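Q: Could you fold this chain for me?
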Amino acid sequence: MLKKLSNSLVESFVVTLNKEDSVLKTLRMPHALRQAVKVNLTTLLDRAKVYEDERKELVESFVEKGWAEKNDDNSFSVDKEHIYEVNKELVELSSVENELNIETVNKDIVDNVLENNSLTLGEEEVFLFFADDSDKQKG
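A: Sure. Below is the predicted structure, expressed as structure tokens.
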């Protein structure tokens, strides 16, 4: 199912699913949901890579314009005169909407997992995103 989400949400979902104490390592879930999570994680990782590459190019353009300096640790320092422009461009990039092919599962399966497990709000948000909400779209 095609679903839209911003670059910042893609990054948030990837961080949630890849954290060291990820729910994926311990949570018992139906096979359909586990498969959807694995397939969708691959999709999200691919899109996160594109976002990261775009962000790096943007930072390089700031350096070329003299708006920022690259530090030894690959971070960057922004010239005070250009903070507004840099922030504006970074926010625009993080807000770009992506239409991704997301493998969904029946919402009842997701609801059952959410009701019977203690998850963080971020983890719940990810699982709800993977729920088939086609009934909601029809209404």
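A (continued): The helical segments are 7-18, 31-65, 83-95, 107-115, 121-129, 134-138.
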